[in-house]
From TrEMBL:
Superkingdom to which the source organism belongs: Eukaryota
The name this protein goes by in its record: DUF1990 domain-containing protein
DUF1990 domain sequence ranges: 83-230
């Protein structure tokens, strides 16, 4: 079933259709929500999207926190691929030294890695377990709002010659085009080099992402390169 409203958000519960004045557009395709906005989504629209998601994860609880593991261990996890998840991993050298590492931490905590013309997160969103937020992405004409929740925050302090790292993982909520989890992290290794890493596992969660998943995967890779450039820009400016 396909339904479109010009008057607000639409929620389909069995045979009932509800309208709320939260969004410019909300599509229901095969009983799945898709949150759209013709303009850059406002904080009010993002909050309404999060509220509409019900705070319900759209992926299996056994994978909650999975991205806290190393990329190599996830690549060897046969159950992940059996359940339809694809792994996306990118790791970039962004500098060296403790000062660069601390600036990198600040970049993640203030969402500078999402400081793009076509993708953003409200920079006031706290990096803490349980915090809900929207990733807003411009796709062709409309913006797409996708709700997530921070599922863990990990930090290890440097001691002598051991590495230091800071990172957090977020899980997708109902209404997100994909199902899965993504981690962003910054690391100061034993050689004093600073690395920015993105690790995600995902699979389609909406009819549109099923038919357009190759495109979605390309966008993930494109985002990774855009994101590291945003981090480097922050490091060089601060």
């Amino acid at each position: 079933m396909f339904f479109r409203s010009r008057y607000g958000a639409v929620s389909l519960k069995r045979s009932r259709v509800e309208l709320t004045p939260d969004f410019n557009f909300c599509y229901i395709l095969f009983r799945e929500m898709l949150f759209l906005s013709w303009g850059r989504p406002s904080p009010q629209e993002q909050k309404a999207c999060i509220d509409k998601s019900g705070g319900v994860f759209n992926y299996d609880s056994k994978y909650r926190g999975a991205t806290a593991k190393s990329a190599s261990s996830l690549k060897d996890d046969q159950e992940l691929s059996k359940d339809g998840f694809a792994l996306n991993h990118a790791r970039f050298l962004v500098g060296s030294g403790l000062d660069t590492y601390e600036k990198g931490k600040t970049a993640l905590k203030t969402w500078r890695h999402f400081g793009l013309d076509w993708a953003f997160v409200d920079p006031k969103t706290p990096i803490q377990n349980g915090a809900k937020f929207c990733v807003c992405v411009k796709e062709f004409l409309p913006w797409v709002m996708m709700p997530l929740q921070v599922v863990y925050v990990n930090e290890s302090k440097r001691a002598k010659k051991t590495a230091a790292s800071f990172g957090f993982g977020s899980g997708t909520l109902q209404g997100h085009l994909l199902a899965g989890e993504e981690r962003f992290s910054i690391e100061l290794d034993e050689n004093n080099q600073v690395w920015y890493e993105i690790l995600s596992l995902s699979k389609p969660a909406h009819f549109l992402s099923f038919i357009g998943y190759p495109y979605a995967q390309l966008r993930q890779k494109y985002f990774a390169h855009q994101s590291v450039n945003a981090v480097k820009k922050h490091l060089s400016a601060s």
